Amino acid sequence: MSNLKRNIKILFGIFALLFFSLIAYLTYFQLYERDKLITSSYSVYNRRLIEQEKKILRGSILDRNGIVLAKSVIEADGTQKRIYLDGPAFAQVIGYSRRIYQQGSTGIEKAYDRELLGMVGSDPMVLLRKLILGKGQIGDNVYLTIDKALQDLAYREMEGKKGAVVALNPKTGEILAMVSTPSYDPNLLDRDWEKIMTSPEHVVLNRATQGLYPPGSTFKIITTAAVLTYMPELFKEVYDCKGYVVVDGNKISDFGGIAHGKENFERAFYVSCNSFFIEIGLKLGSDNLEKMAYAFGLNQRVPLEIDTAKNYFPSIDGKVALAETSIGQGKILVTPLTMALAASAVANDGVIMKPYLMKYVVDPLSGAVIERNTPNKYLTPITKEVADAIKSLMIGVVNNPEGTGRLAQIPGITVAGKTGTAENPFGAPHAWFVAFAPAENPEIAVAVVVENGGEGGKVAAPIARDIIKAYLSR
Amino acid sequence: MDEYVKTGSKALKDVFWIFVIAFALLFMHRRPEEANTIYYTLAFPVLIFIVYYLHVRLFPLGEIQFVILTAFLTEMGLIMIYRVAPELLVKQIIWIAIGFGLYFIASYLFKHYGWLYNLKYGEYIYIFLAVGLIISTLFFGKEIGGAKNWLTFDGIYVQPAEAAKVIYIIFLARYLKDKRDLKNILILGAITIGIAGIFALEKDLGMAFLFYTTTVLMVFLVTSNLFYVASGFGLMAIGGILAYFLFWHVRVRIEAWLNPWMDVPGKTYQIVQSLFAIAAGGFFGTGLGMGHPEYIPVVASDFIFSAICEEFGILGGIAIILVYFVIMYRGIKVALEARDEFGALLAAGLISMFSLQVFTIIGGVIKFIPLTGVTLPFVSYGGSSMVMSFFTLGMLNGISVGEEEEDVQFEAQY
């Protein structure tokens, strides 16, 4: 009997443990799982959000200066209508939220859905106050880091072309412009949903963050970084360019088959000599090149509030692959955002700041800031010394009489850049240009891609120049 | 004693006011369709007070807490049921009234529970009754909500397994009182595995788990043998793995637990909706009438805890868990104070089955453990579960009262 009594007490302990583990798990769930659950993409199955969405006047999306880009109005029949005031220029960045039509959501509309629905103040006191003040019916406003004037300019420059532009502040990671063309008018989503979604030109795709392109010669920034970091002796190499090299029996030509003649590292960078960089790359070795590419995040998905594609950098297998990779060809595929960040690493003493699109979220009635993004480091691929050395090379690309990026020159401002002309199986090469300015104290870094546009120095560089010029003279 | 009654009536007043305020709000929120609904609703607090008064009168030494705590649980159930399925409210109140009736009957019946032990061929009778009830649905049963565990009589749905639970506990107490050697434990093991197997065939995994685990715990109580416990749970694990590969419905449950996102519109719809509801409630809840618990499937029975969490927050949910904790504590106390081993085993078995059931369903709907469909005692909608839960607590009260009265007589002699 006494054993039995002891065991019954143990039984009590077991059940006490079971019950309190339930309480502990519930608490854990609310603290750590809840937000994930509400914001997850599976929330399309959460009818509560849909109900709430119908009741709440969705918040506005504004640019960094407070210019309204998207707002909701109530129609005569009581339903809401979303109006995009600068439709095509912002279509992919802002995206859409069409959960109530069972059509999913993208872009900023998706990333800041809960904020726009006014659901972030889950603190009961905030909610209570909202309820008492009758504020429950309006969502919060999201201010972007994007400058509408710059975005519009970039869009005008890209109109009629296929491609993307990314401009960002290399010191903070704030994205100043992000354009993808061809675009569509999100105000027509109701009418033309099918047509827009199935467009053969993939207008919904945000080419700036999800478009994957071979980086071409812009990758020479990374090859150079690897040389300066791991084998600085290669920087003193001198080489006689015949316009092609033969690697394991494969002939790889320079663009247009131009023989650059005798050249040192600087000149090879200015004129973007492929033969030179292939020779350098073969001496540098796969491991060093891979290590530096990974340091720049070329095998990663760049963290951003909206969806980004994972960059593709397969391990280099064999001499031919190494030769191709050293000049940004071969199998590598990167997003324009990634290359803008590579330029920003050079601009910002070797540090890549984590890019972001939301500046802050404001409760429109009280004016209180509910959320705010602050600059954070993302990667540090190179040292300040290496960054400075690459910077002077990039200045040469734009300012040396032989440089491939001369069209990016701006009177009174030192622009540093690198052109790229990326061969691809779909036709004419993709035109690339990455740049930052002013070189002495960089305020903006830009990446421009024009699909099948031809030479980077001729097609992409002028676009970057106009964007930089407009931004610096604002 | 006076102090005791005073505290009790104070708690009961709180229960009363919660009820009045909640239903005043609910009736404003959604006007009842029939006047009957209002009369029956008003009958509930009256019923509680009558039960309370009778309990104090008839069993001054009884477990008055059971009345107060079940009054709170049933009222929380009624509030949520009116929110999600108002047409079931009146039925549920009737079941509660019948339940309290059975509570008193059980209290008298089991005050002198010795006859259960002394009954000739008792253990054979109990086990045949229990297994008979469990098997009955296999032949005459109806499949509802994926499990074949219902009998219908003229439109009334009965879950025989609920009654089988109590009879099986009586069997266990009787059997384990005397038969504790290896051979008999092995026989008991075989019987239990058989019962769990029948439940598995009926796709009633919750019941299989409850019967099996309760048996293992009871064997531990009488033998203190950790080897039995270890092999018991080891066999359960093997059985679980076998069932995972043999039965599609077991696999679905376990996969839904491991990865609720694999098929949200289909196989994992229930658990995901339950989690959405709990997440919507947060710590403090959306407030009564402000949430959408009706989006959860089978919310009035299996998922009522999630509905409570949505509108009352997990603080409301934790309150419910703590109430069960106190009931469990009182049950354990009854077992400790029982006058003989048979009574102790009976009480311990009853409260084990009860507590495990509470853990199984709450743990299931919050995705702490794989979901198995059992009801939340006193809260979920459903007659069989309601009356048998009351019967269980009535038995515990009876065991307790019998013990106390004997003590009083004993003291009086001196």
Automatic annotation (TrEMBL), chain A:
SUPFAM superfamilies reported for this sequence: beta-lactamase/transpeptidase-like, Penicillin binding protein dimerisation domain
Keyword annotations from UniProtKB, A to Z: Membrane, Transferase, Transmembrane, Transmembrane helix
Residues that span the membrane, as ranges: 12-31
MF terms in GO: penicillin binding; peptidoglycan L,D-transpeptidase activity; transferase activity
Any GO CC annotation of this UniProt entry: plasma membrane
Domain Penicillin binding protein A dimerisation: 58-142
Domain Penicillin-binding protein transpeptidase: 163-469
Signal peptide start-end: none
Any matching Pfam family: Transpeptidase
Claim: Membrane is one of the keywords in the record: yes
UniProt-listed GO biological process terms: cell wall organization
Domain of life of the native organism: Bacteria
Keyword Transmembrane: yes
Protein's UniProt name: Peptidoglycan glycosyltransferase
UniProtKB/TrEMBL annotation, chain B:
Signal peptide (from-to): none
Membrane topology of this protein: Multi-pass membrane protein
GO CC annotations, alphabetized: cell division site; plasma membrane
MF (Gene Ontology): lipid-linked peptidoglycan transporter activity
A Gene Ontology biological process term: regulation of cell shape
Location relative to the cell: Membrane
Keywords: Cell cycle, Cell division, Cell shape, Membrane, Transmembrane, Transmembrane helix
Major subcellular site: membrane
Ranges annotated as spanning the membrane: 12-31, 37-54, 66-86, 92-110, 122-141, 182-201, 208-227, 233-250, 271-292, 312-332, 344-366, 378-396
InterPro entries named in the record: FtsW/RodA (IPR001182)
Protein name: Cell division protein FtsW (Lipid II flippase)
Provenance organism: Caldanaerobacter subterraneus
